[in-house]
């Protein structure tokens, strides 16, 4: 197939001519893959020998014939944990005091926000900077959530971004909902995950003694902060039984938060639209955004991973972004990184699936004049009814 035909096939059919031209141009200019060091035969040979060194994400791809090996100890453990959590939900609804219900919701929310604000946006992506006190509190909340130590969380997440939806992605969504949700935690790692995991730059995490302290003493810290503390508060402050508190505020609460986090890896890579980049798997999912306190705008996040808002529309539906904005107001977060709105527009125009509001008449105008005027922008904003974008456009032109 000659190059010209290949290039044309990548242009979305549904776009107006003006946009097709833009997409073609941008693909020529910006989406040219890095030159590979290997030819097809070498790549296959390397993969057969489980040697992934030097292979690019596109070359690793997904081998659908790969047979997963189940780690039965983990599978049975997760099954038991979920059954116990379901029982915990029943205990919470039927046997607990109302104060315990509120407490479980409070712990779920605060540990969830701890993970999204800290492990994800601060530690994994360095989307903003934070003083010691903020990092200390966020690591504490991360421990409360009980999602493995921060060091491993961040390594897996950085690897997920670098090798998204390939065999080197720990939760490759090409293997389906169950695998990307929880199945990956009960399967032996794909050799590509092990090989590429060693190449992830973790020097910043190694240099942070707080992170390394949590890694070293994780088991004991988990026992204290994820199990004992959430269970003890209802017992000592309003006389709940240890049994009820353990099943509701620890088991049900932590498994619920785990599933909400996992939905970002599963549902937000499978079902939704792709306004910013139709060539990647992550999607925009309002449902996931709500249950994961703001992490469901995943097509945007993978397109602009450094953006502390992890969404185009600021803190709308995002308790996480709201929390970071609040911290920034009191000096607890600073150097917040964002994406200039014109860059978002251009990206939506260039590689989006045509569902972004910028497509249509605005796309044609942008193509002709290179810029939208204030009136157009205010029209877009009016349609989206969002104050946060209005602020963003004013600030960034
Ligand atoms: Zn993702
Ligand atoms: Zn991320």
TrEMBL record:
<feature type="transmembrane region" description="Helical">
    <location>
        <begin position="220"/>
        <end position="238"/>
    </location>
</feature>
<keyword id="KW-0444">Lipid biosynthesis</keyword>
<feature type="transmembrane region" description="Helical">
    <location>
        <begin position="75"/>
        <end position="94"/>
    </location>
</feature>
<dbReference type="InterPro" id="IPR015876">
    <property type="entry name" value="Acyl-CoA_DS"/>
</dbReference>
<feature type="transmembrane region" description="Helical">
    <location>
        <begin position="250"/>
        <end position="271"/>
    </location>
</feature>
<dbReference type="GO" id="GO:0006633">
    <property type="term" value="P:fatty acid biosynthetic process"/>
</dbReference>
<keyword id="KW-0812">Transmembrane</keyword>
<dbReference type="GO" id="GO:0016491">
    <property type="term" value="F:oxidoreductase activity"/>
</dbReference>
<keyword id="KW-0408">Iron</keyword>
<feature type="domain" description="Fatty acid desaturase">
    <location>
        <begin position="102"/>
        <end position="305"/>
    </location>
</feature>
<keyword id="KW-0276">Fatty acid metabolism</keyword>
<protein>
    <recommendedName>
        <fullName>Fatty acid desaturase domain-containing protein</fullName>
    </recommendedName>
</protein>
<dbReference type="InterPro" id="IPR009160">
    <property type="entry name" value="Acyl-CoA_deSatase_haem/ster-bd"/>
</dbReference>
<dbReference type="Pfam" id="PF00487">
    <property type="entry name" value="FA_desaturase"/>
</dbReference>
<keyword id="KW-0472">Membrane</keyword>
<dbReference type="InterPro" id="IPR005804">
    <property type="entry name" value="FA_desaturase_dom"/>
</dbReference>
<keyword id="KW-1133">Transmembrane helix</keyword>
<keyword id="KW-0443">Lipid metabolism</keyword>
<feature type="transmembrane region" description="Helical">
    <location>
        <begin position="132"/>
        <end position="154"/>
    </location>
</feature>
<comment type="similarity">
    <text>Belongs to the fatty acid desaturase type 1 family.</text>
</comment>
<dbReference type="GO" id="GO:0016020">
    <property type="term" value="C:membrane"/>
</dbReference>
<keyword id="KW-0275">Fatty acid biosynthesis</keyword>
<keyword id="KW-0560">Oxidoreductase</keyword>
<feature type="region of interest" description="Disordered">
    <location>
        <begin position="21"/>
        <end position="43"/>
    </location>
</feature>
């Amino acid at each position: 197939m000659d190059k010209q035909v290949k290039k044309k096939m990548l242009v979305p059919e549904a776009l107006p001519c003006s946009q097709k031209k833009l997409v073609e141009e941008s693909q020529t200019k910006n989406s040219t893959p890095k030159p590979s060091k290997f030819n097809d035969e070498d790549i296959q040979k390397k993969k057969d020998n489980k040697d992934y060194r030097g292979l690019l994400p596109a070359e690793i791809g997904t081998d659908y014939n790969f047979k997963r090996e189940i780690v039965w100890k983990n599978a049975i453990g997760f099954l038991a944990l979920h059954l116990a959590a379901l029982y915990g939900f029943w205990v919470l609804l039927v046997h607990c005091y109302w104060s315990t219900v509120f407490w479980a919701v409070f712990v779920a929310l605060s540990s969830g926000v701890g993970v999204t604000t800290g492990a994800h946006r601060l530690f994994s992506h360095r989307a903003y900077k934070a003083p010691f006190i903020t990092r200390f509190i966020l690591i504490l909340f991360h421990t409360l959530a009980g999602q493995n130590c921060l060091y491993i969380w961040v390594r897996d997440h950085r690897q997920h971004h670098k090798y998204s939806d390939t065999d080197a992605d720990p939760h490759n969504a090409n293997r389906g909902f169950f695998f990307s949700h929880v199945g990956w935690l009960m399967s032996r790692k794909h050799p590509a995950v092990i090989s590429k995991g060693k190449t992830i730059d973790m020097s910043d995490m190694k240099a942070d003694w707080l992170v390394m302290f949590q890694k070293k003493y994780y088991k004991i810290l988990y026992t204290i902060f994820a199990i004992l503390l959430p269970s003890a508060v209802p017992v000592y402050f309003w006389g709940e039984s240890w049994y009820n508190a353990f099943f509701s505020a620890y088991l049900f609460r932590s498994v619920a938060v785990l599933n909400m986090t996992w939905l970002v890896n599963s549902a937000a890579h499978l079902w939704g639209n792709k306004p910013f980049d139709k060539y990647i798997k992550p999607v925009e999912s309002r449902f996931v955004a709500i249950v994961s306190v703001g992490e469901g705008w995943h097509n945007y996040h993978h397109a602009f991973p450094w953006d502390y808002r992890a969404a185009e529309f600021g803190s709308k539906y995002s308790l996480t972004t709201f929390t970071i904005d609040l911290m920034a107001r009191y000096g607890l977060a600073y150097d917040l990184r964002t994406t200039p709105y014109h860059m978002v527009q251009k990206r939506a125009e260039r590689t989006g699936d045509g569902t972004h509001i910028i497509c249509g008449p605005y796309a044609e105008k942008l193509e002709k004049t290179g810029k939208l005027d204030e009136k157009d922008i205010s029209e877009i904003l009016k349609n989206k009814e969002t104050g946060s974008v209005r602020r963003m456009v004013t600030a960034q032109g």
